[in-house]
Amino acid sequence: MRHLYVHIPFCLSRCGYCDFASEPLGPHLRAGRVARYMEALRAELETRGHLLASSLETVYLGGGTPTVVPPKLLLPWVSRLGRRLAPGGELTVEANPGTIDAGMLAGLAAAGVTRLSVGVQSFSARLRRNLGRRTTDEQIAGALAMVRQAGWTDWNVDLVFGIPGQEAEAARDVQRAVAAGPTHVSLYDLTYTEAYARWVKARLGEGARERAEAFAETAYSEAVARLEAAGYRRYEVSNFALPGHECRHNLAYWRGRDYVGLGASAVSTAGLERWRNPPSVCGYLGGDEPDREALTPQVRLFERAMLGLRTIEGVSEEDVGPVLDTALLDALVERGLVLRRCATLSLSSRGLDVSSAVLAAILSPPGSRAHPRGAFTP
Ligand code: SF4
To answer: Most buried residue among 11, 96, 98, 313 by CB atoms closer than 10 A?
Structure first.
């Protein structure tokens, strides 16, 4: 396997909407658990080493917030990964404002990091408060200026779309992301955990979530148009890149490649086997066994079709034929939502805007005896 994900499950504090495996750094640092965690990652890399090619095409350090880990613990580990990278390979590190400075950025570059992903989420302090996120305007401006000054040539800004109360400020968020000059922008729809949904209701009132979701549904295509007008090509439903700056690690997932994940909560997929590491730091350090799942060829094919159709390169119709509802597919091709070109299926821009509905319509989930037909009304 030539793709490696490493999970760093620590953050400065926990954001209200967070659905990732992440725990506040402070208590772990004081108890020496961060050092033990980095050591456990090294041990897991050795254990899983036989699954990985000697040189890796892509490595992705995500979280959590990798850059919250003190440099003396983080950088030796990143260097170790950098040495495993094939020439021209991609090594991404997620880096949140408030956790990077010029020294950290220089250290990451020296360790072989080729790409940064900066979690901005929104340029509006009010909207970040509505996400339960503590980053300040100064931290964001400082981080973006440092990344530019340090001369990074491959870097992403993460934004969230559909934050409660974003209606008047969504366009400004996209404009400010573009003005910052990244080579890649991810524009993710906000997803609600149960706890966050309760928090939004209590803090922002009845209907705030519903209004935000309705706004996101109708306004996302305007945000896409703004990004495209600025030269970013939409190469996946929520991802936009200047030509040649697509995230190769994510492309590997969407193309159905096998990968190894290290760390708490990380998932690995190898052929017809998938395993998930224990979700908590305690469970991971305590040696809890991963959850193992046997996949069927049908499941892998379904995932390949579902993820591949979210990209503009699409999928081979012949390859994913067994999981397609051909009658509905033909109808959606007819309506211009799905494109059929040179035996490849992909979604049109209109299709990408309603991708969940299109994919639910044309894909037959594994185990279903017949496709659950229903009205398709995007
Ligand atoms: S910074 Fe990201 S991973 Fe950390 S708590 Fe916030 S949303 Fe979760």
So the answer is: 96
